[in-house]
């Protein structure tokens, strides 16, 4: 048995249900408090009762405990460094988890392996100082499509098979483009040649049959077009020593943009087998730059001296082997992207 209340005058201690109190007041049993608990203070002043929600925390031996906000308690990884004792799993269920911060390297895994720059809204992989929203300082492997463009709520384009990714400059998403749409690439190649034979009377100008084409430049683009033209023109009638002269012209929307001189000559000899009506082929080139739109190009012939024939089939020429394309007017066109 023990006394319900013991007072030790020698040690200035009071014990409840103990005859050997160890502190100024020693309760060997439960304690019920129906009003505030004050801590701190001294013999003449009341201690603090804290504020609603605070918890009582120890300050160590010989020091009064204190009321503390739970968020200020040093416990767990949120207040101090620690080491995991084993594998851990957080079961979120239908709950969300978010972190907020203001620092450049606010959250990281193993140094620069993975870093979240909250200050600039960036994520670094292999770097703790990312320079773009996602900065990979190292290799990148994709096993599915690569989307570019779009916005925060819509997916970008993955392109189509065979397209290549081209830069649109700083501040713009790159773009998937067909190879023939690249700058400097040949967007189109057009070859045409004359069709029917045509006689152009002296002093007249006529379209060369079959030698015309239409080119359309896509919206928002410019293209450089290179024309290479080959033409023959012979006199309508053969005569010893006779010659002819004229001009092949290239027109854009019925406006001449280039031309080349053509002629034919005959030997002055009257001997059988003398060469008559030999055309000197004309070759001329023209490069122009076009903006978006549709354009029509054609070749004309102007007969300066004597009436002349274009797209001639030289069946009456010595040694003719059936090649009916040999003296046709020809035009090769290359369209380059700028």
Biggest sheet features: 5 strands, antiparallel
The quaternary organization reads as single chain
Shape: rod-shaped
Average pLDDT across residues?
89
End-to-end Cα distance: 107 Å
**What is the number of beta strands?**
23
Query: Which strand-content bin applies to the residues?
Result: 35-45%
SSE ordering: EEEEEEEEEEEEEEEEEEEEEEE
Structural class: mainly beta
Poorly predicted tracts of residues: none
Q: Secondary structure elements and their pairing?
A:
Elements: E1 5-8, E2 13-16, E3 25-27, E4 55-57, E5 66-68, E6 107-109, E7 114-117, E8 122-125, E9 134-136, E10 164-166, E11 175-177, E12 186-193, E13 198-200, E14 205-217, E15 223-231, E16 233-235, E17 243-252, E18 255-265, E19 278-280, E20 282-290, E21 293-305, E22 308-310, E23 330-337
Parallel strand pairs: 2-3, 8-9
Antiparallel strand pairs: 1-2, 4-5, 6-7, 7-8, 10-11, 12-23, 13-22, 14-21, 15-20, 15-23, 16-22, 17-18, 17-21, 18-19
Please explain how this structure is put together.
- This protein is mainly β.
- It contains no helices and 23 strands.
- The strands form seven sheets. The chain has a five-stranded antiparallel beta sheet with strand order 14-21-17-18-19, with no helix packed on it.
- A hairpin with a 4-residue loop joins strand 7 and strand 8 (122-125).
- It is rod-shaped, with a radius of gyration of 48 Å.
């Amino acid at each position: 048995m023990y006394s319900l209340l013991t007072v030790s005058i020698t040690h200035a201690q009071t014990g409840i249900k103990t005859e050997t109190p160890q502190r100024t007041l020693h309760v060997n049993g439960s304690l019920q408090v129906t009003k505030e608990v004050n801590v701190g203070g001294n013999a003449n002043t009341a201690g603090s009762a804290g504020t609603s929600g605070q918890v009582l925390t120890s300050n160590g031996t010989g020091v009064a405990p204190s009321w503390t906000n739970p968020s200020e308690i040093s416990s767990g990884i949120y207040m101090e460094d620690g080491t995991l004792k084993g594998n851990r799993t957080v079961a979120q269920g239908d709950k969300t988890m978010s972190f907020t911060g203001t620092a450049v390297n606010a959250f990281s895994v193993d140094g620069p392996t993975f870093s979240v720059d909250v200050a600039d809204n960036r994520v670094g992989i292999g770097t703790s100082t990312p320079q773009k929203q996602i900065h990979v300082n190292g290799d990148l492997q994709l096993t599915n499509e690569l989307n570019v463009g779009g916005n925060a709520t819509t997916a970008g384009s993955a392109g189509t098979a065979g397209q290549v990714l081209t830069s649109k400059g700083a501040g713009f998403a790159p773009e998937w483009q067909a190879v023939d749409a690249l700058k400097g690439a040949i967007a189109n190649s057009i070859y045409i040649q004359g069709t029917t034979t045509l006689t152009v009377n002296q002093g007249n100008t006529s379209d060369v049959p079959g030698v015309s084409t239409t080119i359309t430049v896509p919206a928002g683009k410019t293209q450089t077009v290179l024309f290479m033209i080959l033409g023959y023109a012979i006199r309508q009638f053969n005569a010893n020593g006779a010659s002819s002269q004229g001009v092949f012209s290239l027109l854009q929307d019925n406006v001449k943009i280039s031309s080349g001189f053509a002629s034919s000559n005959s030997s002055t000899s009257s001997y059988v087998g003398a060469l008559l009506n030999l055309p000197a082929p004309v070759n001329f080139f023209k490069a122009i730059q076009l903006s978006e739109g549709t354009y029509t190009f054609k070749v004309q012939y102007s007969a300066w001296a004597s009436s002349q024939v274009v797209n001639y089939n030289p069946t009456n020429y010595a040694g003719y082997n059936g090649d009916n394309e040999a003296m046709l007017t020809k035009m090769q066109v290359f369209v380059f992207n700028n």
